[in-house]
């Protein structure tokens, strides 16, 4: 029995942004465990309407949908007062969009999160809150002169980063997106300390897998594969040696549910959530895998580095293992094939004649 087993603790679980990639997978997993799930979403992101239809086809009346904006206090109150828990994933998710419109980014990510927190504090203090944060709260972590090239990847010169960036790393908010998510991250943590709310923060790295409609601004792994399937060019910002750790969605969902089950015992907890060193890859390595294993040959274009781009970021995921017994179970090869198979089955993903990949000089 889990902590939020609905036979023992009646009440819905709310997933804000529940029609997005991670949110829809979480909503489906919660419904499969027997929870009534309220998905709160404004359906503004590409693919969200499809995810909403999929959820209701798969789980019927166990999934309900409320259209709303996370900044609307009345709508938020209607959704979450009396809920057993809120998994808060609604947000503005792209660094580039935050640079173009920092005020919009601020109001969605910070004001929206504060609206959720205040609603719980004032009207529903028994409701637990899990917040989707990001590795961008750590900033660049390393400047270009602090990494060296090994094969097709940048690697850190600092020995203390061999297992990745841990939760004790000082925050260094870089880009409006990093600032808004970082401030929200700290508010969620502080509401546990100051007001006694049951909260947890998950600082996510690159999550990938089925139901991800990736774009150039967010969801880069799915974006690369989908662009290649459509014979659309891929722009490489920087030199392509930059490294991220990638985590398959099933493993991410498993981690979220473990944190949810223990949130009362560990209020205010913060966890890095990513694939860790064993699942790190560079942009060039993904292109190489696409060419050799997926038989995709995208046209590649080059562009300058973008604000907030990290030459290297890998999550140290040891805390989740020590506290909750969690570790990734899906290797990159298996996960990338699963994502590619799902994308091939989506409308509009059919490729025209493949193009020859350009060599990144």
**pLDDT average, as an integer?**
91
Largest sheet strand order: 3-2-1-4-5-8-12
| pLDDT < 50 runs, ≥5 residues | 1-10, 351-361
Order of helices and strands: EHEHEHEHHEEEHEEHEEHEEHEEHH
Radius of gyration: 20 Å
Which architecture per CATH? Answer: 3-Layer(aba) Sandwich
The biggest beta sheet is recorded as: 7 strands, parallel
What general form does the structure show?
Answer: globular
CATH superfamily: NAD(P)-binding Rossmann-like Domain
Can you describe this structure in just a few lines?
By secondary structure, the chain is of the alpha/beta class.
Structure report:
With 361 residues, the protein is an alpha/beta fold. The protein has one domain (13-344): NAD(P)-binding Rossmann-like Domain (Rossmann fold, 3-Layer(aba) Sandwich). Helices cover 37% and strands 18% of the residues. The protein contains eleven helices and 15 strands. It has helices spanning 21-32, 48-59, 73-80, 95-100, 102-123, 176-195, 220-229, 249-261, 283-292, 318-324, 332-344, and strands at 13-16, 37-41, 63-67, 85-88, 128-134, 147-150, 153-156, 199-204, 206-208, 234-237, 243-248, 269-273, 280-282, 300-303, 312-313. Helix 1 (21-32) crosses helix 8 (249-261) and helix 3 crosses helix 5. The model is unreliable at 1-10 and 351-361 (pLDDT under 50).
Q: What is the fold's blueprint, element by element?
A:
Layout (H helix, E strand, L loop, with lengths): L12 E4 L4 H12 L4 E5 L6 H12 L3 E5 L5 H8 L4 E4 L6 H6 L1 H22 L4 E7 L12 E4 L2 E4 L19 H20 L3 E6 L1 E3 L11 H10 L4 E4 L5 E6 H13 L7 E5 L6 E3 H10 L7 E4 L8 E2 L4 H7 L7 H13 L17
Parallel strand pairs: 1-2, 1-4, 2-3, 4-5, 5-8, 8-12, 9-11, 10-14, 11-15
Antiparallel strand pairs: 6-7, 11-13
